[in-house]
Amino acid sequence: FPATEPALHQSETRVHEENECGANENPQSVYIRCQFRNLFFHDLQPLSHGRSAPSAAALEDLCLAWISGLFPQGIGLGKTDPSTGQLRNTGAGHMLGMWGRPHARDVGGFPHLAYGTPRKLPKADSLPGRVVVLDVAFAANAGGASYEKTTLPFIEGLGSRLAMWVDHHDHDRHPDYADDPRFVLRTKAQHGACPEMVTPERVAAAGPIDTICCHVDFDGLCSAAKWIRGGVEPYQGADDDARAIDTRLGEPSERARVLDRALRGRPRDEALRGLIVRYLADGARDAAIYREFQGAAEALQAKEREAKRLSANYEVRGDLAICDATRRDGPYDKTELLLIGQRLAPISLVHDETTVTVAARFDSGIDLVSALGLNGGMPTRVSVAAKRLDEVIEVLGRFEVGP
What we know:
Blueprint: H1 5-21, H2 27-47, H3 56-70, H4 72-75, H5 104-107, E1 112-115, E2 131-134, H6 147-158, E3 162-167, E4 170-171, E5 183-185, H7 200-206, E6 211-214, H8 218-228, H9 238-247, H10 254-265, H11 270-281, H12 287-297, H13 300-310, E7 315-317, E8 320-324, H14 334-342, E9 347-351, E10 355-360, H15 368-371, E11 376-377, E12 381-385, H16 389-397
Helix pairs in contact: 1-2, 8-11, 10-12, 13-14
């Protein structure tokens, strides 16, 4: 193995050159290329010091195992044992325990990533090992989901494998966990974004973890990257950027604006989310990958144009601006449409065939959660099922906004 080091260093130079000219690659190829770079230069080379060299067959199995760790859903490593949290490995996955990539909990390696929303969480037994949950609110009693149906079963399913839950959304059930140090639960008023709650002290207190389950927006992905970095910002000002984006107050940096727009432009692209976490965890330094994000952000432009077209449907009733988005020409950016409505009235409401979404400025002092009788969520932006449209309009029509 030591004899291969000069060749590896030559390869590192070649990969660096490709990073500088890889603008035409798609995100998946950039992702795989960069992760193989990390494999060879951050994981394999240290193994050559003080150890006997693995055989070519073992090295091949290591690569397969490492890829399996990156893409567990695609490779199929099997289910997690709910009693231990360990994967029931087969084939290449078995090599993780032999010559495989050092486990995340051992040397700060990259953890398994999973994504969740208050209404849709992954199955607890699909998450390997000890788990930290970041920027995922407890489910509110809206839209069919609830704390009892969604959040509580997930918590109980993780059991002692839950290392920490860090969140900044309001919920009536937060007091239930006041005596459990694993739960760091605050309100939106206390923390405008989640990354500022991810500190070196909390990362250390949680101990070694194997999986991060985070929300799917910039706030959640930045929180995940900061956790991987031991509580250190991915770049100077990242916490401020997350707060500006999550509250829609102030101006984020151009880098954060691009990442936010990429996520809004391709909201269901899980590969993009993983790429953003890895980019941020690496200190936001890879110019080639950043160009991919700029390309992905362009997908938002068509949605913004449709939002602007739909904004002509706004009808103002007192302090409420109502927009019917059921008849549209294509996908639209709901955040942009809600912000347009807030220029017309203190509260904006957008409804389509599935959802009613209501929003107000973060600094407005308006509590939509309380006004609509919900038990949790973000006070200035809530969504409920479309069947509640008339009820919501009636309630907010009586709502008095202060001066």
